[in-house]
Amino acid sequence: MKLFSRAVSAVLATVMVFSGLTITSVFAADTLSCGGWFESAYATSNDSNPKGATVAYKLASSADYTTVDSELIRAYGNTARVDIPGLKGNTDYNLKITSSDGNVIEKTVKTQAFRRDGFAHFNYTDGVGAYNDDGTLKSNAIVLYVTDENKDTVSVTSKDGTTVTGIGNILNSVGAQGASKGTYNTNNYILRKLSMDGTPIDVRFIGKVTSPEGLTEYDSVNNGGTEGDNGHMARMKDASNVTIEGIGYDATIDGWGFHFMCSSAYSQYGYGFEARNLNFQNYPEDALGMEGIQTGTQITAPVRRCWIHHNSFEAGYCASPAESDKKEGDGSCDFKRGEYYTMEYCTYRNCHKTNLVGSADSSMQFHLTMANNHYIDCMARGPLARQADVHMYNNYYEGQTDYAVNPRANAFIFAEYNVFNRVKNACQVKSGGVCKSYNNFFISCSGNQQQTEVVNKSDTVSSSSRYANFDTDSSLSYIPNGNYKLLTDSKEIMADVKAYAGAMKENPVKAEEVNASIIDSDYLPTAPVTVPYEKAYNKTTITSTGKQTVDNIVINPTKVAPDSITIKDLGLVFTLDKTADVTMEGMQATAVPILYSEGGKEYINTSGTAVLPAGTYVIQSSIFDPGKKVYKEAKVVSLKFAVHDSSKDTTTSESTTETTTTANVVSSGTYNIGTANTGANDCIEKEANVANIDYALSDIAENSGTLKNSDDSAISFTVDGKTKFIPAFTGDNLTITNVSNGTSVEVVAGGSVELEKGTYSVTSKGTSNISSLTFDVSSVTTETTTETTTQTTTTTTETTTETTTAFPIVTVDLTQEAGVNPVGTTPNGKAEVIYQEASDDYLLNDTSSNCAATWTNSFEPISSGKVVVRGYAIPMKVSGKWAFVQIKGLDENGNVVDIADLASDSQKAKNIALRTGGSKYISSSNGIVANHKYEYEFIIDLDNQTVQLTVDGTVLNGTISAKSVNAVYNVTATKDTDRNLVVSKPVVGVPYNGETTTETTTKATATSSSKKYYDEYSDVLDYGTFSGANLVDKMTVELSDFKSHSYIYDFKYDESRFSGLDKVVETYAEQVEKTGWKVTAMAEAEEAGIITLICTKDDRILSFGTNFYDKKIMVEVIKSSKNAELLNKMLEESK
Length: 1135
Prior knowledge:
Structural class: mainly beta
Mean pLDDT: 85
Shape: globular
Strand content: 35-45%
Number of helices: 7
């Protein structure tokens, strides 16, 4: 039959050619592409009527064929394509394709197997979702095929006869009548009924499917939505064994997303969720989210066994977001209050808020795997993790612009063999988080790398996480036993991710077919370097810039100088055909040169010698700016290649870096710039290295040199300790950048900056003419100093002090409001307040020239005693007479007044000052510095009408005229279009016990004491003795009708008696009840990470509070004649 059909096709083609007939489509039955993918197979063939074709398959060892569902055969013009899911992995299958005209084609393919080695499958063999672990569909599973055409008509029926129509109605459980707080859909709790039936459900999407009917509504409670959300979510509550998947390479969820949820009433469900082979785009809220229920410190209804793999996520989109930070959706793939989760082989491209693990600092979620994922030009959350144990391996990050890995709030991340290429803030650790790092790869990264590096994989790291060092405990994870596939070569990691991450490709490829080199193919040398070889690089040996090949080395200098060449990316590329000893000498510019393998492994940083095996290598800049998408400049002086003597090797053939030299440091003194200078340490040329200062000037005159922002000109140097740097210049401000970490500060003419040990680059914000550079180690402030400053008629004393502990305050509630000044003005640019999640602060973004951006934190007026305001502010520009933190209130006449401000004055240096009454300045001697974080504390004494402002340890005092205080006000500028400001949310309160002095905290080991808290309260159980925690502080408040005793403990506990902190709390509550106390209420403030247990007995209240943010536990006993009134207030606040 096959031979006959081929003959007919050949004859038909010949007849057409010689008869001159024009036929647009000729079917050639044996034109076919086919192959095996992950537990599936695919095939394409030419067919004039693709929907008329049929396809069957069988195991190669079997005799019986199974006909595929007709929905799996799709038409692409005159091409038929079939994709067959549900096949066993790593297995040979025979395909039989019968075309619409009866021609038969038979092919054999071999499938691949999905990996099931993460936490979702740890100690679990029931199959996650609707499939078994061998790849086949569970026998009783229901399959729904969903297209854009049938999305609102597809239906499903449970065993009790309940039928629901429309995929939005089927999947959006929270929209059901009785669940939705507004109007409702027709869900009728169908997913819960299928769970009760024990029926898995497999939803197979075909092609692009846009938002169906029945989903949550925009900014509304209708259909189970939430005000402030962008809606369009299918929120699947109380489901189990659910798979949502795409068929083929083009299944796309466009403009909506999914939540998989668990409820307290049906906590036995909410497990077994799988999402695979889907493309997500334009989701207005989330693409995927999973969330359970937490009560106190327990996840009482966790989502569990969730497996997210082989999906592609583009950026979300909402034209008019209900909340300002959701224009690009709220999250690509988030996980909250659950356990046993695997996210692997997913691709994220241009996503904003990518992976959130935990909705707040108190939110708990455990046992997560994130592996083999590809992040491309994303912004943040890769992941942002709280209260979690996360294993991350073989992930590949490219061009992350804000931050990548970000553990917070006791999260413990074990990251191994991940690749970070051109990433800003590869690892940014906050508020108790830990990232244990083992053999990760960093290529031209900038900013924070705050991971804790370990030499041995089995090393442990200190952490307060519930599952700290889970990676070394075989009862908690698969890691110690090595039951997972781990790649250790950086190039293999990148190839694996490029080949297999994301949804299926139209024509799947294997890892060995992918180019994973960090070197562009255009820069690959045509021949290896002849060894031995040695060359100095300077304007004598290299006379021109741009790409060129010299002695089989491809070089790409951007500048040539008498002593070096300047490079950025792909600066020098060479190939070795055998092992060699390679020596590089480099110099710092705005960055330093690093020698990498083509897979991104670092061998030499700046200067040194390394043994390099045969292969291709690149020397390029150490820093890439993901925002501007440019590399910083670095300098190469020479390269030397020597034949390697293997007989002297004392270790294995694994190549190692032998040495890294340290750049020469600059000495204290003044260094002049200009051709008229004659000193030995003066610079008289545009490009030179004099006295260990590297000059790359735009121009040079008799008494100055010019730096311009437009041509990458810079001055670079290294200091070996704290140094005061004073550049003398005119023109635009200078930017001083720490080459090692990418941080920078701005200096105004006449100003100075104190530098820590490190290498720095000086560049101009525009055009600056510099006459000299002064380096002064002796003037760096290390002790308390006193200094007098005079301005107008006010003489003040400035005292620099250091406070190690802030005195306690009782905080007040704040109401936030963004606005403009003048009020009611329509901005002619931007005047907005933007919350910055990565740094947990607020940006006042102002490009308007007719008004200023404002942010007000108001509170109930305080009219007596002392008021304390704490926070920080980061002015983004140097400017005079700018009061960027203002304390507002009322005067005796009831008028709103400026009471006290953190400001810059009107002097030339624009000094930091305390401004009172809106016009009186009490100045420091420190000029304002752009991008500097000013930590401040105001103490306003309304009884004595005084104010004390402490800024970065400098104390300024003044007098005020105010009746009450009621707001903290931040403001940019009305006319300036670039005077932006970053501020923290202020902390406002009154001193505890009225005291503003700092007491030394008394530490005691409570476990060694058997004494009760108070003699009069012998029925209060000593928490320290009970749990093994350490007492860290204690406070007493006594008034005429009120007495409070508080004891504060750390999070430690006796691990030999308790399995976790939650067990300590639970047992403590049980013991308290045995002494006659009644547990009255449990209050939880999720965002603040606070849980409070309220108990009562006679005229006393016992409050037990757990604060996960500060990692403290407080036990407080209150005795009051107004006990009932106080208790009611506490209970009302707990709601």
